[in-house]
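Hey, can you fold this one?
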Amino acid sequence: RAWSEALDKHDVDALAPLYAPRVKLYTGDLPRAAVLGAKKRALGPGSTFRQQITSEIDVESSAGAFSVSFTKRSGPAGKLSDVRATLVIAGEPLAITEERDAASDARASTDVDDRCGGAALKVAVSLPAVKKLIADVEAELPKHPERRMGGIGPMREEDGQLTGGLGVHSDERYEALVWYAVSADGTKLDVSAPTASADPLRVPPADAARVAAACRRSSR
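Sure. Predicted structure:
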């Protein structure tokens, strides 16, 4: 509540002792000085920002850290909106180590999916069988102006897998050349090229590791 009241009053000095030396601030990871600088710019002269907590505060603890969730009503005067927000508080003395809300979580999820899908597709099209298949198709495309190469995805499936691929589009159909599927936890990559091989293609361990790193989500 002290954090919310300091923001509402534009009191950056009151915020200073509430933050840890390093903070995951929405989609960034910043030193405290940078966090306070960002707050000072946002709450500077001319700002009409207001904030209040409008719900019960839910607290969960794990390994000495506390995840504190609530609904905040915030924004410029006349344009306030409600959003679910979370602070993570840890350390000795206790201080805010992470600040995020539902909007930043959605942006972070989209960013991870785009990065993960891009890495998986890059590996998929680098595999020898796929490279040859794409080269052969591209050589034929000039003869068929109604057909064009293009991607599909990334798409998050119901089971959590991230899928996508590359193929040939026309007004009537989509012919897949290569598909990738990354497991929900980002640790496993499967690649298939239906017209080149009936079996999944082998992905070199080093390439699989690079995709896993790109698909890794920040722990919550």
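The longest strand covers residues 65-76. Let me know if you want another pass with a different chain boundary.
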